[in-house]
Amino acid sequence: MADPNPRNIKINIKTNINQVLKEFQDIRSRDLPRQYGFALNDTARSLMRILNARTSKFFHKPIFAFTKQAFGYVRSTSKQKTINQKKAWVGVKGAYGVPANAEGPKKEIAFNKAASDRAKALFELQIYGGQRQATDGSNYLVKPSGHTKEVGGMTAAGGLDKRKWLPSVTNNKAQYFSGIPKGGAQGENFRGLWERYADNTRIRMVAKYDKTANYQPLFPYDEILNTNYGKIITANWRKQLSFLRRKSKRPKYS
């Protein structure tokens, strides 16, 4: 039977304060930076996937193995000891230290150097705008004309087929020629790749030659990141803090 007189009850608690302080010091100096790094890595991975997915909205028929896999991310590392030192970021694969392939169980498509260079050049123009010039040693860029699709010169993704169609027609000197036709309208607007009709009395431009191509900003890279970063890092950091709370040892009393 319990003692009805509470004055006879004594409770004596001894706390190992040094052990408690050590545990909190470990949490502050080791566990918090580590878990924050995990939150940053999860956030960078999510932002990478959002950027790759959004290419479908802003590009016409983006190629899965290229345009839709162009972004990667850099993870924070264990060498970054404090929260202030922890860094992770996203970007085009091969640019600003972003590896050409992603890490983790769901590996993204790896890029070789040529693919990385093409992706960097593409998104530099699509994000910031600018002017492109020929870089293959020629003086002209080859662009689709009003007849390119009609003659089978476009890819399934909607771009000029420079790998198969263009080499095949430029090598067919009997049916095609390059330059400005003689005897008709003159000027740079008429410079291109021309096809002779079977009757050899008519021609049509199947690809256009231009010295430059101008681009307006199309892909809202900064806006996508600014819209999504805050809510994603907050959710990931809360998840890591919740993990720490479950993991941390309770103070020992004796």
Sequence-ordered SSE layout with sheet pairings:
Layout: H1 17-58, E1 71-74, E2 89-92, H2 113-128, E3 130-133, E4 141-144, H3 165-170, E5 176-179, E6 192-196, E7 203-210, E8 212-215, H4 221-247
Antiparallel strand pairs: 1-2, 3-8, 4-7, 5-6, 6-7
Helix pairs in contact: 1-4
Report on the structure:
With 254 residues, this protein is α+β, with helices and mostly antiparallel strands. Helices cover 36% and strands 15% of the residues. It has a 4-stranded antiparallel β-sheet with strand order 4-7-6-5, with no helix packed on it. A hairpin with a 6-residue loop joins β6 and β7. α1 (17-58) packs antiparallel against α4 (221-247). Mean pLDDT is 84; it is low at 1-15.
- State the domain count: 2
* Tally of separate helices: 4
Strand content: 5-15%
> Unreliable stretches, pLDDT < 50, 5 or more residues?
1-15
pLDDT averaged residue by residue: 84
Measure the end-to-end span: 26 Å
Report Rg: 31 Å
Biggest sheet architecture: 4 strands, antiparallel
Determine the fraction of residues in helical runs and give it as a percent range: 25-40%
Oligomer designation: single chain
Strand segment count: 8
Strand order of the largest sheet: 4-7-6-5
Order of helices and strands: HEEHEEHEEEEH
Question: Judging from the principal axes of the Cα atoms, what is the shape?
Answer: rod-shaped
Which class best fits the helix and strand makeup? Answer: alpha+beta
